[in-house]
Description:
Blueprint: H1 3-25, H2 36-56, H3 62-70, H4 76-101, H5 116-138, H6 145-159, H7 168-173, H8 181-219
Helix pairs in contact: 1-2, 1-4, 2-6, 3-4, 3-5, 3-8, 5-6, 5-8
Amino acid sequence: MNTLLKKATAEFFGVAVFLTAIISSTSTTFNHTPGFANVALSGTLAVMILLTAGISGGHLNPAVSLYFFAKKALNLSELAAYVLAQLLGALAGVALGSHLSGQLFAPAANAVGFTGIELGGEVFATAVLVWIVGHLAASDQGSKIPAAVGVWVLAASLYTPTGAQANPAVTFGLLFHGKSVSYAGGIILAELAGALLGLVAITFISGAAKKTATKKKSAK
């Protein structure tokens, strides 16, 4: 199999399983205890990142892929393949999750918009997620990314009004699970803004910390 196709396939399956967990675990079909869905979806994401890390890098998120594109770790064709695979994986995951939980798989009929609080929550959740991934990758701590991202998504999902989607592919998938185009469009823009803030944080905060550590080593 072509190397890029193999990577895109890994991204597709990783996102598909993640969205399946989101849709199924949040279904009212199952009488789960409070917080179960948050643990289930964050745990699934951590496992999927771990399983795909050695193949595609385990991005499973267009915002993360955009970060690595900005850092020139991906070229434009690779970015396009990754994002397409992630979006298709989200679509497949919502379809499977809806089937498993007996829910409707269809675009939303009502045009429900977003609130400023929801946008702010997505900017914050995505910025920190990209910062975590970028900082750990840049400091040769990539093995910690699955656990760190899983813990962050679990934590942020408990106190953001959107459940910390922090992933344009997830938001796209939710278009087929009751969310409107206007809602998804606003949330995706917030997530992209968060990705940009995360990149800034890595450049100025993590970069400054790395320079300080280097100077201390040189002084010794």
